[in-house]
């Protein structure tokens, strides 16, 4: 996830990451305790994923040059899609090379089935780009505000028009969860669509870790979910998930025809990650316990963070300069948290911490103790 990092600004070269992503990382030759980013299940260096990725490269090469619209499909991509159907309990799944493509694939694919797009004001950039590419009128509604969305539908949707509501499931910067059930109820009388970017929800929330749509108990009825497999899943690529007819429609978009094949290693690792999460439910349990512990500790310091089961804990403290000072002081102690001005952060930015399944209680206590001294 992109962040504004005061540690290296202007023309300075980026810091060199020399290890897999996780709670403990090697950066610029230095061991770092990491609470930044999105390696939520701690699978960045999981041997099972690395080995199967290497095997896929040996078997398939990096990618196939025979695309889907010519009647071909990579064996690795087929594995990823089959495991996604099994894991998410849906009729159809579409694997593509990066999660950022989800907005373009989903919204352009549904352009003929909707008339007006309504998008959360803090929705991810990929959803906004998809909305513009769909070529429909776009209205932004206040962040997670059901009443504002209802008012906007009443004021802007003409008789017979079909709305499409686009939102993150878990918002990347703050960790807030969208009220999907309320959105679905609002648009049902209009035969509307709900498109949900689950990049930070896959593998983190919902009873089985299937995301915010699972948490809201939504059926795959005029619903498309998707997003990145490079966060909690520790792999690379993206998914779109829905009923068979809808996913078949998404395959016909220009984006799907021209830009979604991806790398065989990313697809194979995605498939194995979904199998691994089913085999090891303790990963999700450990993540949730660490998230509870981190958020409780931050609240104990007087900080306001989202009260949900997700792993992201973002907070504002005084102003942007003060938060950057805190970030630099933590860095000097070998701890990284993100000072973020990413989408949804607000004018001053936020300090964004995230719990991972591979954090230990001692590591969480170390962060909280350091913050206690700095605040």
Question: Would you write up a description of this structure?
Answer:
The chain is α/β, with parallel strands linked by helices. It is built from 13 helices and 13 strands. It has helices at 47-60, 75-88, 101-109, 125-134, 146-156, 180-187, 212-215, 244-250, 254-259, 264-279, 282-300, 320-332, 361-374, and strands at residues 24-27, 30-34, 92-96, 116-120, 138-141, 163-168, 193-197, 223-228, 238-242, 312-315, 335-336, 338-340, 350-354. The strands form three sheets. It has a seven-stranded mixed sheet with strand order 3-9-8-7-6-4-5, sandwiched between helices. Strands 1-2-11 form a three-stranded mixed sheet. Helix 1 (47-60) runs antiparallel to helix 10, helix 2 (75-88) runs parallel beside helix 10 (264-279) and helix 11 (282-300) packs parallel to helix 13 (361-374). The longest helix has 19 residues, at 282-300. The chain is globular and about 60 Å long. 52% of the residues are buried. The model is unreliable at 1-6 (pLDDT under 50).
Summarize the structure.
By secondary structure, the protein is an alpha/beta fold. Helices cover 39% and strands 16% of the residues.
Radius of gyration: 20 Å
Name the structural class: alpha/beta
Q: Which residues form runs of ≥5 with pLDDT under 50?
A: 1-6
Q: What's the β-strand tally? A: 13
Question: Could you spell the SSE succession in H and E letters?
Answer: EEHHEHEHEHEHEHEEHHHHEHEEEH
For the sheet with most strands, the description reads: 7 strands, mixed
Give the strand order, joined by hyphens, for the main sheet: 3-9-8-7-6-4-5
Question: What is the average per-residue confidence, as pLDDT, rounded to a whole number?
Answer: 95
Strand content: 15-25%
